[in-house]
Amino acid sequence: MAEIEIKTAPADFRFPTANQTRHCFTRYIEYHKCTAAKGEGSGDCQKFAQYYRSLCPGEWIERWNEQRENGNFPGPL
Amino acid sequence: MIVHEWLFLTIAPCDAAEPWQLGFQDAATPMMQGITDLHHDIFFFLILILVFVLWMLVRALWHFDYKKHPIPQRIVHGTTIEILRTILPSIILMFIAIPSFALLYSMDEVVVDPAITIKAIGHQWYRTYEYSDYNSSDEQSLTFDSYMITEDDLELGQSRLLEVDNRVVLPANTHLRMIVTSADVPHSWAVPSSGVKCHAVPGRSNQTSISVQREGVYYGQCSRFCGTNHASMPIVVEAVSMKDYGSWVQNFE
Ligand SMILES: [Cu+2]
Questions:
Q1: Which residues contact B15 (CB under 8 A, 6 or more apart)?
Q2: Can you give the pLDDT at residue B199?
Q3: HSE on the CB side for B189, CA within 13 Å?
Q4: Four-way CATH pick for B30-108: 3.40.50.300, 1.10.287.90, 1.25.40.10, 3.40.50.1360
Q5: B179 contact A CB<8A
């Protein structure tokens, strides 16, 4: 395996407090808006994917993916 | 028997709670150093006030005696003393408040971009840790559960109710973001020597930043009552060099 890259989601001035719930949710939505606009394979969206994966608990991502498939995702997409 | 006691004390880890411990554990982060310093600062004023109040109290009890003063003085008003006893305590409070707020806000502040995000998820009654910075899909690759080692499985030198099977490995001298949340009831992720106590609330993710200044093993416990086995979900943080952290991540399973 190649050397790992030490890099994570940067501090975001929109979410300056200890509560980062929205930070994770926003990054998740940003990624899916990005792929909707630029297409699934677009490299520009990958950083958002990295951000939300770093910030969101895996269980949340799983649930949201499921909800998107079922069409009952609670956020703006 | 007593020899065993002393032997145990000498091999007990420095960054864990010790029997009959009264003070803080050794600081491993600037945050904990700040907390310890603030505690000592405030204790200076505390001792000052304690001695003064005790002196006043004992003096009053000693002098207000029916034999010495058969007719007591009834002073109900004194402008000078009233001004003094209002202004002096406010000045003392100010001397306590300023360093206290300075510390509080510096703990909240995320000054630099963190290098690594580690997610600590509380469960009844174990912890899950997720390192997702290196994922290339939504599939979790570096995730593990951390269970306490039960009393029967302890090896010599391991601490009861503190040791776990899988430790949180993180690099020293690096700015880290801890994302703390829970999957069931509220828990708390607390490591005293790193000065961190972060509530794990289901449905909410709390962030706290750590920068461990020295390599070592740090012990903490769940600090929010969460049910029967609340005492059996400790936290063990192992701070290693960045090089060792890199190889730990690469060699993970
Ligand atoms: Cu707990």
A1: B25, B26, B28, B193, B216, B217, B218, B219
A2: 93
A3: 29
A4: 1.10.287.90
A5: yes
| Structure tokens, A66 | 């499921």
Per residue in B67-108, pLDDT (tens digit) is 888 887 788 889 999 999 999 999 999 999 999 999 998 888
Cβ neighbours of B219 (radius 10 Å): 23
Q: How far is the CA of B111 from the centre of ligand 1 (A)?
A: 29
Q: Where do the structural domains in chain B lie, given as residue ranges?
A: 30-108, 113-251
How does residue B10 score in pLDDT terms, banded at 50, 70 and 90?
A: very low
Q: How confident is the model at residue B13 (pLDDT cuts 50, 70, 90)?
A: low
Enter the pTM of the model.
0.84
CA–CA distance, B208 with A19 (Å, rounded to integer): 9
User: From the CA of B19, how many Å to the nearest CA of chain A?
Assistant: 33
Q: What is the DSSP letter of B202?
A: B
B18 touches chain A (CB under 8 A): no
Residue range B146-176, pLDDT digits in tens: 999 999 988 888 888 899 999 999 999 999 9
ipTM of the shown complex: 0.88
Architecture of B113-251 per CATH?
A: Sandwich (2.60)
Q: Which of A11, A19, A65 sits opposite B110 (nearest CB)?
A: A11
C-alpha of residue B229 to centroid of ligand 1, in Å: 8
- Whether residue A61 lies within 8 A of chain B, CB to CB, comes out as yes
Asked if the C-beta of B247 comes within 8 angstroms of chain A's C-beta atoms, the answer is: no
